[in-house]
Amino acid sequence: MRDVMTKTMARNIFYGGSLFFIVIFLALSVHSHYYIVNTSTDTAGLTESVEAGKRVWERHACINCHTILGEGAYFAPELGNVMARWGVQDDPQAAFETLKAWMESQPTGIEGRRQMPQFDLSDEDIRNLADFLLWTGEIDTQGWPPNDAG
């Protein structure tokens, strides 16, 4: 091989390398689309109640204080696994009652503690939110959050 690279050699390396990485990019894009389509969200578990609970979550901006599956603010506890931590993951009625009692007792008024505001949610909103949190508790997060309390 020559000590000096000619323009033709440089152009061939550029086009060859570009073509190589474009092919790799396209192959990875196709793979990720195939992977996401076949392993994505459990659409069978997305009921109208779960969707309504997500809308309650968004309407009241819960993510401004809480995290869910690691996303959000770190002012208040992680809620992606809250139903499992409370021991009601497998009982929707107990989940509703526990969440309702918790929501209605806020703010606690304990001096020096962070306080959750009172949202005055209807029973239907609380049930929908409980269903949404139960649904998020079923997501395979591959060990995230790293501890029980988030």
| Strands, total number | 2
Shape: elongated
Distance between the termini: 59 Å
CATH superfamily caption of the largest domain = Cytochrome c-like domain
Q: What is the CATH-assigned architecture of the largest domain?
A: Orthogonal Bundle
Strand order, largest beta sheet: 1-2
Please identify the structural class as seen in this structure.
Answer: mainly alpha
Verbal overview:
With 150 residues, the protein is an all-alpha fold. The chain has two domains: 1-38; 47-137, Cytochrome c-like domain (Cytochrome Bc1 Complex, Chain D, domain 2), CATH 1.10.760. Helix content is 52%, strand content 3%. It has five helices and two strands. It has helices spanning 7-39, 48-59, 82-86, 92-104, 123-137; strands spanning 67-68, 71-72. The protein has a two-stranded antiparallel sheet. The longest helix has 33 residues, at 7-39.
Summed up:
The chain is an all-alpha fold and 150 residues long. The chain folds into two domains: 1-38; 47-137, Cytochrome c-like domain (Cytochrome Bc1 Complex, Chain D, domain 2), CATH 1.10.760.
List keywords for this structure.
single chain; about 150 residues; mainly alpha; Cytochrome Bc1 Complex, Chain D, domain 2; two-stranded antiparallel ribbon; 5 helices; 2 strands; about 50% helix
Topology (SSEs and partners):
Blueprint (H helix, E strand, L loop, with lengths): L6 H33 L8 H12 L7 E2 L2 E2 L9 H5 L5 H13 L18 H15 L13
Antiparallel strand pairs: 1-2
